[in-house]
Amino acid sequence: MSEYWTLPTLDDRAIWSVRVLDAASGAPLLEHNQDTQCETASIGKIFLLIEVARRIEDGTLQLGQRVQVPAEFAVADSGILYRMRDQLLCVDDLALLVGAFSDNLATNTLLHLCGLETVRMVAPGLGYRHTALHDYLRDERTPDLPWTPSFGTARELADVMLRLAAGDVHSPAVSARVLDWLAANADTSLLADSFLVDPLAHVDADYQGIVLRHKTGSTNFARIDVGHVSGPAGSVAYAVAANWKNQSADLRAPVIDAMRAIGEQIRGHITGRPREE
């Protein structure tokens, strides 16, 4: 860990996995239990987007190809597609909904299109042993279903964001397309809250020249934020995950406070500037 970085107080009732990398050198700036595997809620959708982008680039899928939402994988909660009157959307728009709103129904539609078993192998195919998308999104996860929709470690999740930014996931074109979908992410409530970007409009550089590409995941016992963020003074790839599944208390407040403290250090590092009052 760099002497210039300080790990904030992490509530010990939660399981944590933290890793922050300098994007230019790949050197770790901050880390804590980076190889601890956590349930990562929606984070595994990144690997679905990678597979969709790969198929678009090789011609297997077409951007404008319209896809019927499968009735057997109907799901609500995260996203807006389940509330839309016209749900017959094209591949590109479905992927954009996943990137922008972590849309569960759009996710399940694209998962059905690509095949769950195929998408499960995307992360292992990239060399990750402890991180993957594991199942469809479900309104209820009963004991007979896979234990989690996705799982991962901070080491591997920070690495995939580093590689996406470097154009090193399959190809520069695939990497750029995934990052373009993630650029629309409207959830800046976790670590990225410290960057002070406009949640609904940060495709281009925003506050203090910050460019953010990230994905979040939330459940009633988990908060995860992984991303790549750049500013005039540098770039960082990061992954912070916290789980408190077996706790009676809801730890989202102390968990998000710690995430924001890490985010503030990242913001100062990439901008070289204090907050502007």
TrEMBL record:
One of its GO terms (biological process) is response to antibiotic. Keywords: Hydrolase. Gene3D superfamilies: DD-peptidase/beta-lactamase superfamily (3.40.710.10). It holds the Pfam family Beta-lactamase2. Residues 18-240 form the Beta-lactamase class A catalytic domain. The keyword Hydrolase applies. The keyword Hydrolase applies. GO terms for molecular function: beta-lactamase activity. It comes from the Bacteria. This is Serine hydrolase. The lineage of its organism: Bacteria, Bacillati, Actinomycetota, Actinomycetes, Micrococcales.
